[in-house]
Amino acid sequence: MSPDGTCILSSSNDNILRLFELPDITKSKERGLKIDPVLKVCDGESVYDYCWYPYMRSSDPSSSVFISASRDLPIHMWDAYYGTIRASYCTYDKYDQIVAPHSINFNLDGSKIYAGLNNLIQIFDISRPGGPIDKKLTTPTRKSKHGQKGIIACMDFNPDYSGLLAAGSLSKSIGIYDTNNSNELIFQKKKLKGGVIQVQFSSDGNYLYSVSRQTDGIVCWDIRNTGKMLCDYIRPGKTNQRISFDISKDGKYLISGDKEGYLNVYELKNFVKSAETLEELNNQEKKFESIEPLYRYKVQKDTITSAAFHPYYPILFTCSGQRKFKLNIEDYENENKITNSEHIINNKMEKQDENEMIESDISENVLSVWQVGPI
């Protein structure tokens, strides 16, 4: 979702970034509209990550840009009006070969781009295309036991302008870096349940939320003092798909899809406000709890991989779909002793015509817009 709430940017398996322009929902009362993309851009390789310039305004063409990171290519800054490349930023490995970052993000004032690589974060000045102006080794050496190891797969800046950057690694760790103090690592959590695929600060900056691969919970961390795991928000998420979440601008709600096609809405718990005394606060933080959704709606037939809030209106966005593999068991007939007319779909035997290719499950690759309140 663009910062001004006018556009949606999506990435799909065909390596194309699509830009959709929302109709004026304050004037239009039509529902069930089909929206076609107004812009398509393609680097020709798998898209690892993309994000909007934080001060993007559609009314100002100079600010209407987004960046993308694709396999074996530099970071590209795209013009959201014409689909042309405005600038390129090259991330290099230790052999001075261009290597694509797995995550990218602007800092809060939009002056720098942070790129997450293997054991490394590189920093770019957007006014100086080309190579990085600084870098942060997340671990001193590959064999070192210190620092944060692995591919930095996600990043988020604390919205309180403290300069704190949270980074999640596919090697099952979360690190918080102080970008105002030589990018020093000031907090780390290791040995999590899976590779971390998303981190996001709460609106007040007191908590950090994270989600890992093949896990059923979105974890809330206390980053003020204790660094403890306070609670997790439960939803079915044991899948190889990345299932992201989003937090409302007022910090009251969190939404996430799940592998069953449900949209889960949670009321975020504020541990400070719910405690009347310091002793009660300490007791609450010692007691870990799993929180079920406040609301749970079946909105798609397939896995909901992404859910997001509109920055200003009571509108939600969901994106569903996953890779489907066609199976022909004829090639495995001798191994599995299955006849040509029998195929396996989701661990169940089904009769099919001979030599027919089967696509497992129902496929629903769609980006949907939902109104959840009066405008």
TrEMBL record:
SMART domains, A to Z: WD40 (SM00320)
Signal peptide residue numbers: none
InterPro entries with a match to the protein in the record: SWT21/TCAB1_mRNA_Telomere (IPR051150), WD40/YVTN_repeat-like_dom_sf (IPR015943), WD40_repeat_dom_sf (IPR036322), WD40_rpt (IPR001680)
Family matches, as Gene3D superfamilies: YVTN repeat-like/Quinoprotein amine dehydrogenase
Highest rank taxon of the organism: Eukaryota
Designated name of the protein: WD40 repeat-like protein
Organism per entry: Neocallimastix californiae
UniProt lineage: Eukaryota, Fungi, Fungi incertae sedis, Chytridiomycota, Chytridiomycota incertae sedis
